[in-house]
Amino acid sequence: MSRLDEIMTNVGLPALRKQFGDDAIYTPTTGVPVSTWAMLSQALEQVGEYSPRAEMRRTAELPYADVPAPEIGATLTVHDVMYRIDQVLDSDGLTVKVAIA
Amino acid sequence: MTSDYAQMIALRDHLRTITVANGYPITVDAVEIGNAALVGDGNTTKTVIALVMQQDAPDTNTAPQSGFQRWERTLALEASAYGASNWDETVSALWYAIRRALHRFTQFPMSWQPAEFVAPAMGSTGSGVLCGVRVSLSFIYQLDFRGK
Prior knowledge:
Oligomer: heterodimer
Mean pLDDT of chain A: 92
Shape of chain A: globular
Helix content of chain A: 10-25%
Low-confidence stretches of chain A: none
Low-confidence stretches of chain B: none
Number of strands of chain A: 6
Order of helices and strands of chain B: HEHEEHEEEEE
Radius of gyration of chain A: 15 Å
Mean pLDDT of chain B: 90
């Protein structure tokens, strides 16, 4: 583990969880649910070529240590709202970013 | 009202008859000329159609100096619907309904260009829920300044 990874694991992620994290339950399509935390974010995007409509798109970042390989179709429950994981967008060994709907 | 806009209104009003109650496989919640963002009202579960003007091309066989000229109006029909799952099935039903409605529209002839299907977007900002179909339609209208 690099020094940077060590700092992020011991200081950075706990700080991010405290400031931006929400308790979450990751439920794979088969298997045991995992109690974890997540940082949710959302962006309003325009779709349509000639006549734009707006839609909300959401992502969640999960700690890699808890959910190293999120499944497509698994669910993430945050504040009693259940989201479906549509795609894994990024993974840097510390967090995993997924698209949720 | 100019004849071109009157024809677009006639088309809009006809597309508004796309409902399950009228025998279509899907109900279109709103049809408007212009901006689908207004039609959708920010609610992504609505099925909407927007008719957007794209181009006017003059008929070279009629002279504007005579006060009478034919024009070909091209407009985009852009329809979108909630397609978070099975979006292809949703779009198929929507496109079927649109074609059926256009076949039933007899007020003036139109020509169609190939249709494009649009899947819900997926990208760095997350997954989208809106899917759609868009097609360009053309119709002829007459600009008549004679006696005016």
